[in-house]
Amino acid sequence: MHIGIFEDESSRNFLPLTYLRPVFDLRCGALTLREKILAHLPADSITLFVRPLLFDLAREENPSISFSIDTGRIPEYLLVNGRSIMTRAGARTIMKTKGEAIFISGKTVVAARLAAQNLDKLAGEIGSGLSSFNDTVPRVEVDIPVATYPWDLLYSLETEIINDIVFLAGRKKNSKKGKSVHRSAVLIERKNIFIGKKSDIGPTAVLDASNGPIYIGQGVKILPHTFIAGPATIGDGSVVKAGARIYGHTVIGPVCKVAGEIEHSIFQSHANKAHDGYVGHSFIGSWANLGAGTTTSNLKNTYGNVKAIINGASVDSGRMFLGLTAGDHVKTGINATLDTGTVIGTSSNIYGTGLLPKSISPFSWGSGTNLGIYDCERAIDVAARVMARRSVTCTDTYKNLLREVFRITQHERSRNTATS
């Protein structure tokens, strides 16, 4: 089967997290949304459909994958909405349905199986989510969750961490070989704790899987005196520093360094929170660095719903708990204090001990009362330096995308007055 994964118009609701990646590459558990789709739906080949902004970088990062429809070679496509949180049951419904079909969850098209004669019509429809495509194609209701805002990914962790660990554990045996667990470490409900090769669990570390499984990837270092409660996952190559407290429904992506107190949050990858401070119900983008003492509020004193600024408009999350959404390359200074529902844009460098604004534009620089504009070329130089420390090249394509993000968000920085 040939599978096409597409972004629709609602991908903008995930900015700033989707300025530098397609929505289907956001993490929701141990796996990204794309990885979930491909885990449940067998694919002989793949096509990715992304926004024009991301086309060059996506093609550079996925050299073996097609980015266009080939009607001469592919007789039938199964198109899947990249915001879908694919499940085994939902995938089974799709696979069992014969012939052409549009699969609907609520009001959202989550997938479509279309024959060759309809493929030529797809180009103008994919970006709009196939919402008006060909009324002659049967509609099929399917129970597949769809994320609309970043907090939907956070609250899906309540099921998705467990689902992903079940999937990953089924592929890998929980072998005692190739890993090191110190004799003084405490593993509670050990049968529900999965530890990858070349990972070290340090002295007196406590891993408690009483309330859900824990998955430790390969090459992970869990330093002494740490506490990790499941369900939780720690990605390949990450470091959990001494004394860290990681509570349930937390996902630490690959090559992160974390410390302090973390709860019900996602760290996409290559992000640092290497010191004390609290992060809860937050989504932290790649290459972000939260300075020592940075603390998020995730609960209003009124216990009311938290609102966040999405695409310039205040959106009621419908949730009592919601912390920080930090775009890629965000930096916070020591003792930064972040209000409930704060959104910080890509490549912003924020400091100061006062309560910061709840919405900070990309490429901002300064304190809450004196925000300026972060010079684009300076920001790119810093990004390249940071990425090189993790042996990742900041390519010309990546740099050009950062420049384009700076250009298209200029209007958002009109209220910034200081200079970097």
> How many strands?
37
- Work out the oligomeric state of the chains in this entry: single chain
Helix % is 10-25%
Portion of residues in beta strands equals 25-35%
Fourth CATH level, the homologous superfamily of the largest domain: Hexapeptide repeat proteins
Task: Round the mean pLDDT to the nearest integer and report it.
Answer: 92
If classified by CATH, what would the architecture of the largest domain be? 3 Solenoid
Number of helices: 7
CATH class of the largest domain: Mainly Beta
How many structural domains does the protein architecture include?
2
| Class inferred from helices and paired strands | alpha/beta
Low-pLDDT stretches are none
Largest sheet properties: 9 strands, parallel
Q: Shape, please?
A: globular
Distance between the termini: 52 Å
By CATH, the topology of the largest domain is UDP N-Acetylglucosamine Acyltransferase, domain 1
Provide the spatial order of strands within the biggest beta sheet. Answer: 9-12-15-18-21-24-29-32-34
Rg estimate, integer Å: 22 Å
Question: What layout of secondary structure does this protein have?
Answer:
Blueprint: E1 2-6, H1 33-40, E2 45-49, H2 55-61, E3 76-81, H3 88-96, E4 101-105, E5 108-115, H4 116-119, E6 139-141, H5 150-171, E7 180-181, E8 186-188, E9 193-195, E10 200-201, E11 206-208, E12 214-216, E13 221-222, E14 227-229, E15 232-234, E16 239-240, E17 245-246, E18 250-252, E19 257-258, E20 261-263, E21 266-267, E22 272-273, E23 278-280, E24 283-284, E25 289-290, E26 295-296, E27 307-310, E28 313-316, E29 325-326, E30 331-332, E31 337-338, E32 343-344, E33 349-350, E34 359-360, E35 364-367, E36 370-373, H6 376-388, H7 396-408, E37 418-419
Parallel strand pairs: 1-2, 1-3, 4-6, 7-10, 8-11, 9-12, 10-13, 11-14, 12-15, 13-16, 14-17, 15-18, 16-19, 17-20, 18-21, 19-22, 20-23, 21-24, 24-29, 25-30, 26-31, 29-32, 30-33, 32-34, 33-35, 36-37
Antiparallel strand pairs: 3-5, 4-5, 27-28, 35-36
